[in-house]
Amino acid sequence: MAVYGKIGLDYMLYKKLFFFFWLIIISLILSVCALDKNIDIQNEFSVSERKWTFIIYMAADNDLEYAAIANFKELEAVNYGNTPISILVLLDRSPYYDMTNGNWSGTRLYEIKTDIYNTALINSTRLNCPELGLTKDTDVNLNTADPLVLSKLIDFSKRVYPAENYALIIWGHGTGWRSNADSFNSKSPLKAIAFDDTHGQYMSLPAFGRAIENKGLSVIGFDTCYGAVLEVAYQIRNNAEILIGSEGAILSSGWNYTSLFNDFINKPELSIINLSASIIKQFSERYSSLSNATISQIRLSQIENLFIKFNNFTGNIANSIVTQTSRNIVLNEILNNVESHYFTSFPSDLYIDVFDFCQKINAIRANITANDNEKNAINNAAVELDNALSAAIPSSWAQNGTTKKIGVHVIPLQGINVPASSHELAYIKNSMAIDKSAFVTNSLHWVPNAVPQPNSLLDKLFYFIF
């Protein structure tokens, strides 16, 4: 009986061990499946390993669709190896401008993968994104002009691809300062970023600011026209460390992403400074022959001070203009001599380079006023503004060799050097326009006012009666 008892005990012990073995296996399977409902994502880096997650918001439901596909393939041309970065691209296509890759239209989210065969077809991994209602197997047409789409994309990216740093790159059309408009026309300049032809909308600057608020971004890049302007920087000054963009127009081909990431992934530190340097380097190479091409790295923590010094400088100029003659001297300098940026089709917004504006207006201060105190005040304010520009813009590149590149809006143009009869309501302080940008709302001495003020420079230049 002892022998039989031993055999029976071993058998029962075996059954228990077998049961617990399968219980552990099933628990492990369930645990893995519960890690994330996007388990199909090839998310190969842990929180401590991934240095960067890049979020590229490719708003191409417009006439830039063909350029979007070309830039997408530039991203796939890089051999990323084991570099601890992930690149996500939300690609919104148009039905009209590019017929490649199955000519699908709508919105898809991808994680960039190297195309080792360098084909013309998209090779990257298509992702599920519950936050946006996107799946790998169904086509959805999102409105990329909707700030909620951008906001939810950032939330998804941070949840599923946690990293030490997050970079958001806005890709597509851009016009800088724009607030909400009453109507939309895809051919007009009445937009800010991410205009969507299918939905007939664009994302205004204030809406963009709300979409990225408190998202923990390190870098915001604008692969658009007019990204590096004071109005944009001021709107997002508390929402990232660095803004990188151009104060003027760029080509539809945009940035060179192959060059950018080939350079960046070979930097051992993969730091914010490294990324900024790689972006500026690729841009200077691609745009070396384009006149007026510029790109800047802007420290957003310094924008508040720059805004204050800019207001102080422009206020001193406004107070010194007391005659029609002095007004004409300043306006002529701005329209004809200060470095300017605008589209070559009109009407178009006029932007001027802040540093060049500061230098050239200060140089003619004796022509503006004969009052020594006013001349000294302009000069002192110019020195302070110059110092603020140096602190805010640690590096920049311009085809003409100048530095400290950041723009500011002046007025719409009807033709070359021909200003419009008035500003748009959204750029007028205390006007009836809804949802004005923070720059317009907080400006003291630059933007025009609903009731013209003597200490506003744009009021003095365009609306004041002497």
Please describe what this structure looks like.
This protein has helices at 2-34, 65-76, 147-160, 205-211, 230-235, 257-264, 272-286, 303-320, 324-336, 354-363, 365-368, 372-392, 438-442, 457-462; strands at residues 52-60, 85-93, 106-111, 125-126, 165-171, 193-196, 201-203, 219-223, 242-245, 294-299, 340-341, 348-353, 395-398, 407-415, 418-419. It is α/β, with parallel strands linked by helices. It has two domains: 52-290, Rossmann fold; 305-392 and 415-462, no CATH class. Strand 11 and strand 12 (348-353) form a beta hairpin. The chain starts with a helix and ends with a helix.
Mean pLDDT: 89
Shape: elongated
- Element-level helix/strand string: HEHEEEHEEEHEHEHHEHHEEHHHEEEHH
Number of strands: 15
The CATH architecture category of the largest domain equals 3-Layer(aba) Sandwich
- Sheet with most strands: strand arrangement: 4-3-2-1-5-8-9-10-13
Total number of helices: 14
Derived structural class: alpha/beta
What is the total domain count?
2
Query: How far is the N terminus from the C terminus?
Result: 121 Å
